[in-house]
User: Fold this.
Amino acid sequence: MGGGGKKKNKRTKSKSKKLSGEHALASRYVNEWILHASYASPPPPPSAAAAAAAADEFLPPEAPRVPDRVVFELHSHSKHSDGFLSPSALVERAHRHGVKVLALTDHDTMDGIPEAMQAALKFGMRIIPGVEISTLYSSREIPGNGEPVHILAYYGTCGPAPYEELDILLSNIRDGRYLRAKNMLLKLNRLRMPVKWETVVKIAGEGVAPGRLHLARAMVEAGHVENLKQAFSKYLYDGGPAYAMGSEPSAETVVQLISRTGGISALAHPWTLKNPVAVIRALKSTGLNAMEVYRSDGKVAGFSELADTHGLLKLGGSDFHGRGGQDESELGSVGLPTASIYEFLKLARPVWSNAMRDILYNFAEDPSEANLEKMLKFGVRNKLNGYSSSSCVGGDAVDLCPSSWLATHEDIELENIRLKLASNNLVIR
Ligand SMILES: [Zn+2]
Ligand SMILES: [Zn+2]
Assistant:
């Protein structure tokens, strides 16, 4: 931010005047967090010619200035689950729609995060590593009769700590999805709507656990239904004739796991639940942090009050899949109030800092190649091109490696970690 610009830029009067003190504070806090990210990861210079042209025009690349409205998109899907776009294409589209901070929240996998992080560098955007976890809620009164509940998890730049705990949970869920898809296929066959397993797998894409949407697409392809909507409304809806239950973990377990691994949990689309109040009450008591309340059609009423009653943060996102079609909300279309983003970051940043500190300490204890690999899991490697653990090990590691991305400062006391690394190094030598 220049600060020396004489012309018009004295102050954008009308708007800032109206901001209440509180709002201004929240807005500054949020913007500073985003700007840190832009400074920490400046977009790479394109080509020499383009750079020269840019220099002529005196344009800073993706200028890190405070935007009027900060667009956070906290719910989106890529090809790694049932979305249609690759993570890079998703990031690019989000950028075109003014999104500054994007949470990629694929179903039960974080495999798309590294690619999204890499793509975001180009636009000076920030990625929040996220995941939407499939769970089941069973009320104590009616045991065994579980209701599917989706829980969003938001993590810091280095992801969950320890990563393994979440990873095992997610891969178990994915394995269960294969079984479930096969059961639904069986039911479709019985309903005389044969769909080939190979087709479903092909639609899902390599390594992607098939879900209902993939089955629905196969049904459209085979001509059993006219469109996806019909596939769901007639056959695949919860409890429908071709529906099969998965083997998801309980919602309570998942909420606890998210907070144990340094994440923030949010109940996704509570308006789809049969009994939202019971679910919210049960999950709040196990540590749920937030719930989705805002939608692009702005319907927040009852749920906003529910969130207030239970002391939950109010979030929301488009749940963009890239299906096309008119009823799909665009990336960035859910206008989150600055105050909500502020509350979210205020809660999340210390949690994320702790997780990062754990990861760093862990590395300092055992600065091995394998541990470095783990630490750089979410694409940080790309910013550290050329560094191997041998060039990272030692007192310099904090300067050379983690700090280059931790410069997105989550206020970690690096000094202790530095000492630890140095002492460890002495032992190694
Ligand atoms: Zn969902
Ligand atoms: Zn979703």
Observations:
- The pocket of zinc ion (ligand 2) is lined by residues 75, 77, 132, 268, 319 (CB under 6 Å).
